[in-house]
Amino acid sequence: MASSFESDITGRTEVPDVVVSRLPQYVRTLSQMLAEGVQIANSQQLGEKLQITPAQIRKDLSYFGRFGKQGRGYRVDHLLEELKQILGLTVTWNVAVVGVGRLGRAILNYPGFTPDGFQLVAALDDNPGVVGQEVGGLMVRPVSHLAEVIDSYQVSIAIVAVPIAYTQAVVDRLVDCGIRAILNYAPIMPQVPEGVSVRSIDPLLSLQSMTYYLVNGLSPEKEL
Amino acid sequence: MASSFESDITGRTEVPDVVVSRLPQYVRTLSQMLAEGVQIANSQQLGEKLQITPAQIRKDLSYFGRFGKQGRGYRVDHLLEELKQILGLTVTWNVAVVGVGRLGRAILNYPGFTPDGFQLVAALDDNPGVVGQEVGGLMVRPVSHLAEVIDSYQVSIAIVAVPIAYTQAVVDRLVDCGIRAILNYAPIMPQVPEGVSVRSIDPLLSLQSMTYYLVNGLSPEKEL
């Protein structure tokens, strides 16, 4: 929970994280609509594409002010631009990948981050057999150089793809080096201090919630 | 949204998907507590480990009946067993991986699925250079054998790690073959009919919601 002090500074009602987490999906859908030449979209049309109820869409957007006129829908280009501003997606973010095993290699070779403004600028690992190799166009540096790499490449975000036994220690070091946004691939929830965001990519948790629907013969609600 | 007909059959109040999605995290935490010899836990203690409010934990569990006695906490072994039953985690699920590129290989070599009851039993790809190779102990089969593979290996769940351009077509074929739970790694939301669950693993969406906190100088609420 952000402190009320911070909410006071921004002058904004605190936005639930579940809403913040949905916004990138809005951005993706609006970008597609714009590319298809759609100029105006109402919450019904957005809801169909996003598989979210129109009421939920109106509520989510209401946290950030009034984007549409009653009964007239949203201007797609305007809403897209505003949401990108709100999410900080109008700038490029430099990202370091810590851990260059099979998963780290797949991440470093994935071409999907750059077009959306996330530039992988550094790769680090502690395995002497990996340090010095070129992976995804980057030379792997030893983790002992972390502070220097973060500083010289102006890294704001770290992707952590190290084994579970090392994850918390790596996260602690990243936090010590000033990193405030961490994408974690290990099946644990690293502990971080106030002011640092962690998201975990955990396919096992996704599988384990789908089996609920298999054994109960149900479908999930159509929501993100 | 599951139809009311289905809810009537199970006799259970429909559980929000956000609650279902949290339960695997409960299972993981309770397993750790059990391994550490903890016998009783109250919602406060669970909340600290899970970074969820105690009130939210009590509300989540209330969908499935009364697990704890007022003021006495939950029996860890009992709650764990019940949640595993509810989620369908007391049986082994056979899983097929479609797409054996860099990401598919990382998935097929990941040792973390099996101990939790998800057995990777088949790998499929359409690239003739990959079909016939052994990856993660499985011989890669052509996608044209999909129906036969699903049938003979009793596959219930599919992991789809194919390029975005092929994702919807692969998902459609899986649904035609009777698959009702799909874990998708492409950055799109595949469309599926009622009765089929899809979860997407999408690191870009996670990154794009963390930048909100970076530009606004906030932290996410401490919730899953």
Summarize the structure.
The structure is a homodimer of 224-residue chains. With 224 residues, chain A is of the alpha/beta class. Chain A has helices spanning 4-10, 17-35, 43-50, 54-62, 76-87, 102-108, 146-152, 164-176, 203-216, and strands at 40-41, 74-75, 93-98, 118-125, 134-135, 138-142, 157-160, 181-184, 197-200.
The fraction of residues in strands of chain A falls at: 15-25%
* Structural shape of chain A: globular
Output the strand order for the largest sheet of chain A: 5-6-4-3-7-8-9
| Unreliable sequence segments of chain A | 1-11
How many angstroms separate the termini of chain A? 22 Å
Radius of gyration of chain A: 20 Å
Describe the oligomeric state of these chains in a short phrase.
Answer: homodimer
Number of helices of chain A: 9
Sheet with most strands of chain A: 7 strands, mixed
- Return the structural class of chain A: alpha/beta
Q: Can you give the mean pLDDT of chain A?
A: 89
The share of residues in helices of chain A is 40-55%
Describe the model:
- The structure is a homodimer of 224-residue chains.
- The first copy, chain A, is an alpha/beta fold and 224 residues long.
- Helix content of chain A is 43%, strand content 17%.
- In chain A, the strands form two sheets. A seven-stranded mixed sheet of chain A has the order 5-6-4-3-7-8-9, sandwiched between helices.
- In chain A, a hairpin with a 2-residue loop joins strand 5 and strand 6 (138-142).
- In chain A, helix 2 (17-35) packs across helix 5.
- The first copy, chain A, is globular and about 60 Å long.
- Mean pLDDT of chain A is 89; it is low at 1-11.
- The interface between A and B is large, with 71 and 72 residues.
